[in-house]
Amino acid sequence: MTLTRKIAFAYALILAAVAALNYVPGLTDAQGLAFGIFALDIYDDGLHLASALLALSAALWSHRSAKWFLILFGAAYLADGLLGLATGVGYLDLAICTTGPIDLPFGFKILANTPHIGLGGFALLTGARS
């Protein structure tokens, strides 16, 4: 198995774990915020689970599939995180369409969007370089 396929497999594990966050006792606070920072709803869980299944499929299928998963996933999640920095909401869960921009403190926007920016940026760079 190539390094690219291993990275796609790691993304499958990470995204599946993120999809499970709301269902593990103690990881959300009384307001339903994961780690006290952001709320994950059924749309977020579905997005993360679908992404995990795509990552797993790509990792198991071929090096080329894993490469294209990382490029496309990376571009989508990176753009979502950058939009979240600018507007307070992303587009992958349709929040930009359903709620519109939200005025949030910039520090909060950084905390809430760093996972998508980091995972997306790393995936995009890894896929492009493989």
Oligomer: single chain
Helix content: over 70%
Separation of the first and last Cα atoms: 13 Å
Strand order of the largest sheet: 1-2
Give descriptors for this structure.
70% helix, 130 residues, mainly alpha, single chain
SSE blueprint and pairings:
Blueprint: H1 3-20, E1 33-34, E2 38-39, H2 42-61, H3 63-87, H4 95-98, H5 106-129
Antiparallel strand pairs: 1-2
Molecular structure report:
This protein is mainly α and 130 residues long. The protein has one domain (3-129). It has helices spanning 3-20, 42-61, 63-87, 95-98, 106-129; strands at 33-34, 38-39. Strands 1-2 form a two-stranded antiparallel ribbon. A hairpin with a 3-residue loop joins strand 1 and strand 2 (38-39). Helix 3 packs antiparallel against helix 5. The radius of gyration is 15 Å and the shape is globular. The two termini are 13 Å apart.
What is the compact description of this entry?
With 130 residues, this protein is mainly alpha-helical.
